[in-house]
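Subject: Sanity check before I submit

Could someone independently write out the structure tokens for this chain? I want to compare against mine line by line before I put it in a report. The sequence has 161 residues.
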Amino acid sequence: MPLRISPALKGLITAVLMIAAFLFVFKTNKESGGLQYIVYGFYGLGITWTLMAYRQSASFTGKFADLFSQGFRCFIVVTLSIALFYWIFNLIHPEFAEESAAVYKERLLQSKDKMPPDIESEVATFKKQYTLKLVSGAIFGYLIIGVGVTGVGAALLSRRK
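---
Independent answer below. Compare away.
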């Protein structure tokens, strides 16, 4: 009897692999060459794993909605796990907010359409909201990717007999 892993647990395993890949890329400073996209590769593979496993199970009905539901359970756990990781990671590394704020300030100074007190106020607001914007952007992005991969995968797998 094969071990049955729930879609949520598959999502957690996928998230751990994605975080490990992210940390590997971060620690090795491999920003170029597209190595950071391996995180998205793990995401897609995790969702595909969930869909394929369900398709091969005895409870597979052949319905798109049932397949999508399985993928949803996986990608929602991944999304929440990654959002939590990004939040913690950026709390540990406040220098990212500082560096981004410095770049933002430089852009505002170059545009020459704001007064110095306004620039300082905008930069302070930017720094305060940095982690929130990063995490909310990650949530939105990972949800969109998850819906897309799950939708396409479920459509393809529910059509094949």
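---
OP: Matches mine. For the report I'm noting this point. The mean pLDDT is 90.
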